[in-house]
Design goal:
The chain has 190 residues and is an all-alpha fold. It contains six helices and no strands. Keywords: Cell inner membrane, Cell membrane, Membrane, Transmembrane, Transmembrane helix, Transport.
Length: 190
């Protein structure tokens, strides 16, 4: 469980840092739009940095989304089963789908990124940016996903062995009453 907690902490910290990419993307998008409409000027670099930031948000925070159990799934069906059966379904999915696919993408993504770095690949757009940082996000994101997959497998096995009660991976869905209480509490702070 200590390995699982360390992986979880790593992915939380990465996601917290990457959250600033959203702020940067919004600021860049706003400045780019203002410059384009006020001065009738723009640059492909401004547009490309926006999708680099979006790629960073998506690729580097996906593992934290897995940790928080917020990926899309068919809860309508799985929700009818016992907690133990749901854990077995998760474990099966992690071992036979998530890990193999993530490892294959990581296997092909590393040379993909290294080749781009070694060649100093540039965007084909006029005034575009270097490409390798965006390509490096693929193996980095899937490395984090593999680590989080290991963490989730550890947690599911610990649950099935009776070592934990499952709150480490249970998604908390707020009831309407809890959401109203949270809104009221936030309004009182203002």
């Amino acid at each position: 469980m200590s390995i699982s907690r360390a992986i979880d902490l790593l992915n939380e910290k990465v996601a917290n840092v990457v959250a600033y990419a959203l702020l940067a993307a919004v600021a860049i998008c706003t400045v780019n739009a203002l410059v384009r409409y006020i001065f009738n000027a723009s640059s492909n670099a401004w547009l490309e940095i926006q999708w680099y930031l979006f790629a960073a948000m998506f690729m580097l925070a996906a593992s934290n989304t897995l940790k928080r159990d917020e990926h899309v799934r068919i809860d309508v069906i799985a929700g009818r089963f016992s907690k133990r059966t749901q854990v077995w379904i998760d474990l099966f999915g992690f071992v036979f789908f998530l890990m193999p696919i993530s490892l294959v993408i990581l296997y092909f993504g590393v040379p993909f990124a290294i080749g781009s770095i070694q060649s100093g690949e540039m965007s084909s757009n006029a005034g575009g940016l270097i490409v390798w940082p965006a390509k490096l996000l693929v193996p980095a994101g899937f490395a984090l996903m593999v680590l989080q997959g290991v963490s989730e497998i550890i947690k599911r096995i610990a649950f099935l062995a009776g070592k934990i009660d499952g709150h480490e991976f249970a998604k908390h869905v707020a009831t309407p009453e809890e959401e109203i209480a949270a809104i009221k509490a936030a309004n009182k702070l203002q």
